[in-house]
């Protein structure tokens, strides 16, 4: 008779901490909601905790990316062309002054 036999099933494991944190058990955090979940290769939504989080997160990513890309590409091109043009104007002006 040991302590484990006297306690209700699962209680000893809980007290000893072997049930919730087994050595070698890998947990990961859902990148969307931050919930900690056991790393499971059979989880089709990993690293997300659920299909909902996966879809919401990918959706947010796609939207963010489109907005950032569209804006930054346009701004970068405009800025580059503007500085190129002003360089050419300055260069031409210097040539004429020589
Ligand atoms: Zn989640």
Give the name of the CATH architecture: 2-Layer Sandwich
Rg, Cα atoms, Å: 30 Å
The description of the largest β-sheet is: 2 strands, antiparallel
**H/E element order:** HHEEH
Which CATH C-level class is it?
A: Alpha Beta
Low-confidence stretches: none
By secondary-structure content and strand pairing, the structural class works out as mainly alpha
Question: How would you describe this structure to a colleague?
Answer:
This protein starts with a helix and ends with a helix. The chain is mostly helical. It has a single domain (3-97), classed as Erythroid Transcription Factor GATA-1, Chain A (2-Layer Sandwich), CATH 3.30.50. A two-stranded antiparallel ribbon has the order 1-2. It has helices at residues 3-6, 11-16, 51-97; strands spanning 27-29, 36-38. The mean pLDDT is 77. The protein has three helices and two strands; from the N terminus they run ααββα. The radius of gyration is 30 Å and the shape is rod-shaped. The structure holds zinc ion. Zinc ion (ZN) binds next to loops.
């Amino acid at each position: 008779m040991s302590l484990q036999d006297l306690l209700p099933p699962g209680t000893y494991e809980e007290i000893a901490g072997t049930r919730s944190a087994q050595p070698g058990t890998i947990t990961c955090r859902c990148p969307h909601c931050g919930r900690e979940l056991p790393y499971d290769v059979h989880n089709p939504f990993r690293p997300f905790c659920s299909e909902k989080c996966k879809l919401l997160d990918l959706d947010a990513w796609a939207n963010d990316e489109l907005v950032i890309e569209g804006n930054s590409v346009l701004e970068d091109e405009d800025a580059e062309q503007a500085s190129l043009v002003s360089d050419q104007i300055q260069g031409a002006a210097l040539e004429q002054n020589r």
